[in-house]
Amino acid sequence: MSTASQRRVAVFAIAISKLMGLPREQVEQIAWAATFYDVGMTFPCDSQHYNHAPLTPSEEQIIREHCNYGYRLLKKTPFLEDAAETFYAHHEHYDGSGCPRGLKGDSIPLGGRIMAVATAFADLTSYTLYRPARSSSLAREEIRRCSRHQFDPEIVEAFCRVPDAVWRDLIKQCDSGSDSAP
Q1: What is the model's pTM?
Q2: What does the alpha-carbon distance between residue 81 and residue 78 come to, in Å, rounded to a whole number?
Q3: Which runs of consecutive H residues, i.e. helices, occur in the chain?
Q4: Per-residue pLDDT at 54
Q5: Could you tell me which of 106, 81, 82, 80 has the C-alpha nearest to residue 92?
Q6: Other CB atoms closer than 10 Å to residue 53's CB: what's the count?
Q7: Which of the two residues, 181 and 155, has the higher pLDDT score?
Q8: Cα–Cα distance between 119 and 29 in angstroms, integer?
Q9: 128, 166, 160, 175: which is closest to 4 by C-alpha?
């Protein structure tokens, strides 16, 4: 995963958290979790999320290990305990079909639900070996389509209230390395 993609996940998670009016301390914990979102990944996960094919057993195991590895890493740092919980939950799906624990709805930590949308948007708007980057408007439509299944509809609603031009500007800032993003 490139630095620009990592930056995108963190910036998008922060932006969504702020849109939802979360307290600064909670936004910071989500930002920490988002910064580490791809730790331990050994396959191009973004190509799997959106092809509508189930993960193979070996791919699902990598996701589980990635979530467990990041959780254990963050949990070791006392001030990152909430970030650890957020990280651990970022592959859970709102309908309970995600992993590693199969959590559903509000049982998924709020930060994990926010990070899921941020990660999806970053992945969809990034070029991969398997597909070209989607425009921000097409990526937003895909996220909207997956509301209630993969994503929390309240978070999707907040995410979609932001004009497409704002998301495009954030993508450009992230890709250029600008520090002026939120």
Answers
A1: 0.84
A2: 6
A3: 3-19, 24-35, 45-49, 57-75, 81-88, 110-124, 136-145, 153-161, 164-176
A4: 67
A5: 106
A6: 8
A7: 155
A8: 16
A9: 175
CATH number of 3-41+51-175: 1.10.3210.10
- R_g of the chain, CA atoms, integer Å: 15
C-alpha span between 102 and 37 (Å, rounded): 18
CA distance 31 to 149: 24
Q: The tokens 């630095």 sit on which residue?
A: 3
Q: Is 148 left (phi over 0), alpha (psi -120 to 50) or beta?
A: left
Strand-pair partners of 151: 147
Domain chopping of the chain, boundaries: 3-41+51-175
Largest pairwise CA distance in the chain? 41
The DSSP output letter for 78 is G
104-131 burial, b for 16+ CB within 10 Å, e for fewer? eeeebbbbbbbbbbbbbbbbbbbeeeee
Least confident of 6-15, 46-55, 152-161: 46-55
